Amino acid sequence: MKAHAFSLLELSIAMAIAGITATAAISATMSLQKSMVATRKTTEISDEARFTLEHLLGPLRTAGGGLVQPWQAVSNSCVDDVRFPIEPCVAGKTGRLHIARLVTSSQCRITSVVGTTITVESPGGVCCLTRASTGFSVPVPAPVVLFPGDTTASRAALRGPGWRSRICTPSLATCTCTIEASLRPGFDVTPPGRALVDGDFAGGVIARGAPTTYFVRTSTKHLMALFDVTNTGLALANELTPRVVGFESRIGYDRVPADGVIDVPLSSTPDAPHLDDLRLLRVGLAVAATVPDGRVVGSTLFGTAINEPGKKVVVAEGNAVVRATGVFQ
Questions:
Q1: DSSP result, 3-47
Q2: How large is the average pLDDT for residues 247-265?
Q3: Pairing mode, if any, of strands 222-227 and 117-120?
Q4: Considering the domain boundaries, does residue 110 fall inside one?
Q5: What is the tally of structural domains in the chain?
Q6: Which structural domain, as residue segments, surrounds residue 304?
Q7: What is the pTM of this model?
Q8: Contact at 8 Å (CB) between 199 and 310?
Q9: Which of 194, 233, 189, 225 is nearest to 74 (CA)?
Q10: Is residue 14 part of a domain?
Q11: How far apart are CA 289 and CA 310, in angstroms?
């Protein structure tokens, strides 16, 4: 009788041990599965951030060209353009990046801008617009970017890059280009010093091309690209990347050109006395997602903490070294 009772006890203990072992095995398997899925998710958002970053850095590396210096063709200004009501910047977290993409061979010097009429130079008595090499010789409406004159006085007054994005129709007979006032192919960048006026463009440049503006739509956490995707003269905001919780850029100057060293720390705003010493732009992007293992990990974007409740944050930062040719002179 005692032997029989002992056997039942042993059986009960063995079953309990087996149950514990099975539970532990199931728990370990589930934990491993969650960890593997979390790793895949982390890799996914890391790749997403890196691919998006490379998309942004590419046009920065080739900004400017022709008559337009690199520092004139890129901006991180947060000043609004009333024609495009996009969300404002949030200091240290979500900024804007503007890149003017230009056809470097299709450029002319501006003599004057009066209202909707742009008059360009006629070097040697030949209107710049009539030259086949400029791309304006066919009198059809074209997207253009107008840049102000680049002089010591204008740099001191404006304290940074600025431009107007328009559609204009060349008139070869009068050596002018007429702006189509109802069309808006891209964001107008206002320099830090003051708003641009017509007189600022005397001696400046009209270049075929249009800008792209990047910003974060905080309501949906999408990085948006505002540009004229259909080439109809009307820029629209298009979703580029989801789950973006931080977006910023910084400017790198070589304030002592003789030493060939980019000064640190990088600047968050244009450095007026050294605008033409621009050599590098650094862009940062923060992406957040919920991961299956429940890990909540914050990060920093240019020294600012980025934390999202219940999510893991991945940050990617990268440098774009701008054109290193004669456009710096």
A1: HHHHHHHHHHHHHHHHHHHHHHHHHHHHHHHHHHHHHHHHHHHHH
A2: 90
A3: unpaired
A4: yes
A5: 1
A6: 44-328
A7: 0.86
A8: no
A9: 189
A10: no
A11: 8
